[in-house]
Design a protein that fits this description.
Helices cover 39% and strands 19% of the residues. The chain is α+β, with helices and mostly antiparallel strands and 75 residues long. Strands 1-2 form a two-stranded antiparallel ribbon. Helix 1 crosses helix 2. The protein is elongated.
Amino acid sequence: MVFGLSVSDSKKSKIRRLSFLPRVDFTIDVFDKKIRYTQVPLSELMYNLYKDGINKENAIRIIKAQITEVRKETK
């Protein structure tokens, strides 16, 4: 089994990011199926909702931005 690990600086975020909170993205490819696990901090979402206004549209926009930023960093 070959293992690779790399560390690099993250790119500038479109939303307010709390840099001390981890964002996690794992991808496993087994039997021609790709399993992907992505985790972003809930407290970061709550902070951004507090600053931008608490409503459904802002929550969806922030969650989409967080998930896409984490997944783009791994490419």
